[in-house]
Every structure is written in structure tokens, then in C-alpha cells.
């Protein structure tokens, strides 16, 4: 039941299908070498207690498709050598109980994902997707056939007139948002991603290329795979000259998001999807040029974004790319920031802003526009225009400007009472407190928390960080007192600005562009899956107030 690949050490154990969810289970011998098979140095977390439970879950259901042709089998006795605790194999009854418990606990299914690691030989992301897509298409077909009429909730009038809050209405594979726990990228929380995704150096922040791999495949890549993907993105990064000329046509005073979105529209000229569609291609092929466009888009955005930054703030002095650097580090370098801590910040920043399930304005916009078979450039440019709104991505700009105006008014040594007064003044003037509240989250955003941890580690004495910390104490009780705010806790935008400012990137109006570069990773990944799964044109029904009145009167 245990498989190893030639000299490699990674063992794919089995796959299982529970409740319509397909889980690949990879067993990793972390502690002891297994007769001729190297132990897993790449895996950095201790073997969790539930490993054998998961193993047995697979053991009971070993579908033939679970194994690729290359692995060779290793005996169960060898498996015993991996861990001393073979207690699970002694009692079939206990194991059956365990299996059924696992099947019914989504948290356990999530823990299975922790075990997904791949062979160092699987370096081709496109080929991996090609393998996965038919299986996922089947899953969706089966889901529709078996459960197509299952109700997912009731739609109330409140939902219709309150921005569709709480209405489950979208399929989004790459991430899922829990109101209390925050975002999970393909089942992994942010702290789990920080532990599991490869970093530039040991103990460092995750490389966004690793997250891109995870979002696309649902599997945690190893460093070699991530390095390969970095190189692939670099090879796609050349931006055609006309894109810069299109940006130059705008006044330099135009908002950075306007310049950035215009640059993305100019990139669209090279869309592979558009070309292929014009020539004609079967629907089953749609994902391939979408893959090309999405990867090219992700690869080219740092050059476009840094061009906008250098044009507006650095007299147009452009810094060429450094091909020795990873995606985020090279972006930071092109912006003009080479401090190793800033490179780490950029890796974290690009990772955590990438995806936040499908209902937020930017993600949903891209999904909607893409559903008309508009190519990834058109879809992403539309998303950027949504991201540029102050209730969404522009909030990061608003937060720093708000804090700067607070400091201007009261100085850096601000008392708690002065802070409270400032927050109330903001609210009484009819404005929102930027960086607080959320459409889905009901607790502190884990994206805020990990940025706070970064600050505590790297810039604990920064006066602006101290202010952000004080606001964390002062704002939530005030918003709670208002009585109408559903989530008084900080979101991602409450923290990002002060970190960037600390390292010299202090132009607040530019911040949303950074958010946009990162968002391309989530949106691009999902667009590929949208086309791979053949998702149709999005077209919800709308009604008039008159219709609602008539319908509700009849219903009550
Ligand atoms: N300050 C003041 N009032 C707030 C508030 C805040 N931070 N958050 C919510 N409210 C108000 C709303 O404006 C609304 O008031 P109304 O009934 O008079 O119109 C009321 O509280 C109820 O709103 P809600 O249901 O709690 O929030 P929502 O889902 O309608 O809106 C959001 C969510 C993010 C737009 C809102 O919390 C907000 O405006 N926050 C500040 C802007 C911000 O930080 N945006 C970034 C969000 C994260 C992101 O997308 N990047």
C-alpha cells in the first residue's frame, strides 16, 4: 500500500472519495528512513498524530486510480517501520469507527490536505492540471446529477436588497472563507501556509509562486516545483512596449489604479484566448489559452505595476528586473526596495492578498465578466476597477491617509482619549473607519494577525505600528457601541500600509496596486478552473420593488 518513486522518498498512499470530495492522501515518513527510501527532509512539521488514521482511511478505499504508473510498491511491513504506533492496524473495528468519523468531519478532511506533497519529478504545472481536469469535471457532473435539486438555503427579501449577504450562489474552488476562522487556501489556513509552503530561506515567509501552485492544484508544492514556476513566470514576464505608451498617455496625476488598470487593458492585445476563440476551438479546450493568458498576466503585472510607481513617484526612472530573484522579491526590487526584510514582507503581502473566496467585489467581478468568455485580461481589468473602490481594496490607501491625518492633528504621542475622539469624529462626519468591518468575517482577519506578527518580529518599535496596535484596542468597542456594525474587528487593510511605510513605500495612493498584483494569483487560478469546469454564463434573476411587494404580500 505504500508507494515510493525510484530514488525519491515521497509516498503517495491512497485516494478516497468522501461526501463527493476527492482527497489525495500522501504519506510522508518524516522521522525514520524506510529501507533504502530517504526520509523527508523537505517536510518541516512533525508527523501529526492522526497520520495513521488518515492512512487507514485510504487503506479501506484504495481506488485503482490512486497511483501513477511510475511508483513501485513497498510492503506493509515497511510501512510499520515508519512509525512505532501500529495500534491502528490491530483493530479493524476501531479503524472503521475512525473512518466513519473522519468522513463526517470536514475538519478531518482538511487535515488530510496537510499530507499532500508531491514528487520532485512533477515539475510541470500545466501537465498536472491536464491530469486533474477530467477528474474534476466528472466530480462536478456527478455532484449535479446526484444533488442538483438540494436546497442550499432560503433567499429572503433582506438578502436581495442587502447586497446578497449570506446567499450561497457561486462556485469558487481556490479558497473558502469562514466568518470566524478566516480564509483557507485550498483547505490551508494562513499559519498553515506559512509552515508548509516553500520559503526563500529557512523559516521565511511563503513564496507566492507556491501559493499559485497550491491554488491551481490543491497540492502543496516542494521547493523545486516553486523554483520551476518562478522561472516559468520570469520567462513570460516581457511586457510589450505599447503597454508603457498606453500608460504614458494618461496624466501622471491619474490615480495609480487608473494607470494600472489601463496597463492591463493594453496587455489584452496579446490575449491567446481571444485569438483562439476567433479561430474557433471546442469548449473543452477553453482552459488551455485561459491558462496561457492567466500565467502571462500574473507574470507581467509586477513590471506594469512598478512602471506605474516609478513613473509617478520616481521621475520615471525604471529599474530592470533581476532574474535571480523570486516573483515577489523581484517586484519589490523593481519598485526600488531591496532591504531583505522588505522582500520578506512583499512575499507575505502577495501571498495573503491573493484570494478571499469568490463573493468579494474583485473576485466576483472577474468571475462574472469571465463567464461571458471575456478573456483573463478583460476579466481582471474589470476586477481591478472594483478593487479600486474605498469599501474594498482602496481601504488600504484610506487607512494610511487616515492615520497620517490623525498624526498631523494630534502628533505621534497620542493618548487613548485623543484616539477615541478621532474615531468618533470620523463616524460623526458620516465616514466609515477604514480597515474595520467585513462583509463575511466576524472576527479579526487572520491576514491582519499575520501582518501584526510580522511587525512584532521586525518593527516592534515603529511609531505607526504602535498606533495601529492602539487602534486595535480602541476601535472595536466604539464600532460595537454603534449597534449596527456586524463586525467591529480589523481587516487586512488596517495593517498593510504601516508595514510598507516602515520600509519606505509610503505613497498610500499606490497601495491598492500592490493588492491588485497579488489578486491576479487567485483570480487567474479560478478563471482557469472556471473554463476547465465549463461554468456557464452567470445570469442571476433581478426583480423590481413592485415585484417584491406583490410577491411578499401574496406570500404572507
Ligand atoms: N465604520 C463605520 N461604519 C461601519 C463600518 C466601519 N468600519 N463597518 C460597517 N459599518 C456600518 C455600515 O456602513 C452599515 O451602516 P448603514 O446601515 O448605516 O449603511 C452598518 O455598519 C452595517 O454594515 P455591515 O453589515 O456591518 O457591513 P457591510 O457588510 O455592509 O460592509 C464593509 C462591509 C467592509 C464595506 C464595511 O465594514 C466598511 O465600510 N468598512 C470600512 C471600509 C473597509 O475597511 N473596507 C475593506 C474591507 C476588506 C476588503 O475588501 N479589502
TrEMBL record:
PROSITE patterns: CITRATE_SYNTHASE
Molecular function terms from GO: acyltransferase activity, acyl groups converted into alkyl on transfer
Keywords: Transferase
Residues of the active site: 392, 438, 493
Gene Ontology BP term (one): tricarboxylic acid cycle
Pfam families assigned to the protein according to its UniProt record, in alphabetical order: Citrate_synt (PF00285)
Gene Ontology terms: cellular component: mitochondrial matrix
Recorded family membership: Belongs to the citrate synthase family.
Entry protein name: Citrate synthase
Organism of provenance: Musa balbisiana (Banana)
Lineage start: Eukaryota, Viridiplantae, Streptophyta, Embryophyta, Tracheophyta
Amino acid at each position: 500500500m505504500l508507494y515510493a518513486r525510484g530514488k525519491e522518498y515521497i509516498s503517495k498512499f491512497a485516494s478516497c472519495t468522501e461526501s463527493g470530495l476527492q482527497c489525495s492522501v500522501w504519506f510522508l515518513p518524516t522521522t525514520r528512513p524506510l529501507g533504502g527510501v530517504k526520509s523527508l527532509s523537505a517536510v518541516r512539521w512533525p508527523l501529526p498524530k492522526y497520520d495513521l488514521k488518515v492512512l487507514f482511511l485510504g487503506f479501506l478505499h484504495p481506488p485503482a486510480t490512486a497511483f501513477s504508473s511510475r511508483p513501485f510498491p513497498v510492503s506493509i511491513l515497511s510501512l510499520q517501520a515508519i512509525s512505532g504506533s501500529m495500534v491502528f492496524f490491530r483493530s479493524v473495528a476501531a479503524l472503521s469507527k475512525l473512518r466513519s468519523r473522519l468522513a463526517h468531519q470536514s475538519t478531518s478532511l482538511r487535515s488530510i490536505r496537510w499530507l499532500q506533497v508531491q514528487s520532485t519529478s512533477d515539475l510541470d504545472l500545466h501537465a498536472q492540471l491536464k491530469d486533474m481536469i477530467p477528474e474534476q469535471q466528472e466530480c462536478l457532473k456527478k455532484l449535479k446529477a446526484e444533488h442538483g435539486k438540494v436546497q442550499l438555503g432560503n433567499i429572503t427579501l433582506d438578502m436581495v436588497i442587502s447586497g446578497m449577504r449570506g446567499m450561497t450562489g457561486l462556485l469558487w474552488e481556490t479558497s473558502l472563507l469562514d466568518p470566524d476562522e478566516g480564509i483557507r487556501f485550498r483547505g490551508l489556513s494562513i499559519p498553515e501556509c506559512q509552515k508548509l509552503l516553500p520559503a526563500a530561506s529557512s523559516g521565511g515567509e511563503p513564496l507566492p509562486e507556491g501559493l499559485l501552485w497550491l491554488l491551481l492544484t490543491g497540492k502543496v508544492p516542494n521547493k523545486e516545483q516553486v523554483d520551476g514556476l518562478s522561472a516559468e513566470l520570469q520567462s513570460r514576464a516581457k511586457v510589450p512596449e505599447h503597454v508603457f505608451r498606453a500608460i504614458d498617455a494618461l496624466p501622471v496625476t491619474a490615480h495609480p489604479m487608473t494607470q494600472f488598470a489601463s496597463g492591463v487593458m493594453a496587455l489584452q492585445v496579446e490575449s491567446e484566448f481571444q485569438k483562439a476563440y476567433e479561430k474557433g476551438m471546442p469548449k473543452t479546450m477553453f482552459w488551455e489559452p485561459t491558462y496561457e493568458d492567466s500565467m502571462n498576466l500574473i507574470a507581467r503585472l509586477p513590471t506594469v505595476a512598478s512602471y506605474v510607481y516609478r513613473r509617478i513617484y520616481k521621475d520615471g526612472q525604471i529599474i530592470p528586473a533581476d532574474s535571480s530573484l523570486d516573483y515577489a522579491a523581484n517586484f519589490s526590487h523593481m519598485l526600488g526596495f531591496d532591504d531583505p526584510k522588505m522582500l520578506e514582507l512583499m512575499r507575505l503581502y502577495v501571498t495573503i492578498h491573493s484570494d478571499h473566496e469568490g463573493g468579494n467585489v474583485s473576485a466576483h467581478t472577474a468571475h462574472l465578466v469571465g463567464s461571458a468568455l471575456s478573456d483573463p485580461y478583460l476579466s481582471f481589468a474589470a476586477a481591478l476597477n472594483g478593487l479600486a473602490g474605498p469599501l474594498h481594496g482602496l481601504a488600504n490607501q484610506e487607512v494610511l491617509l487616515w492615520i497620517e491625518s490623525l498624526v498631523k492633528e494630534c502628533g505621534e504621542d497620542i493618548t487613548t482619549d485623543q484616539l477615541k475622539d478621532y474615531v468618533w469624529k470620523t463616524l460623526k462626519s458620516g465616514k466609515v473607519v477604514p480597515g474595520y468591518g467585513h462583509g463575511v468575517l466576524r472576527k479579526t482577519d487572520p491576514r491582519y494577525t499575520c501582518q501584526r506578527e510580522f511587525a512584532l518580529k521586525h518593527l516592534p518599535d515603529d511609531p505607526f505600528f504602535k498606533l495601529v496596535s492602539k487602534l486595535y484596542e480602541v476601535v472595536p468597542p466604539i464600532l460595537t457601541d454603534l449597534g449596527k456594525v456586524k463586525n467591529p474587528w480589523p481587516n487586512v487593510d488596517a495593517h498593510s500600509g504601516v508595514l510598507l511605510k516602515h520600509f519606505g513605500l509610503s505613497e498610500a495612493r499606490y497601495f491598492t496596486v500592490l493588492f491588485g498584483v497579488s489578486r491576479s494569483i487567485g483570480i487567474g487560478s479560478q478563471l482557469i478552473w472556471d473554463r476547465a469546469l465549463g461554468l456557464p454564463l452567470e445570469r442571476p434573476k433581478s426583480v423590481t420593488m413592485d415585484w417584491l411587494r406583490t410577491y411578499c404580500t401574496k406570500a404572507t
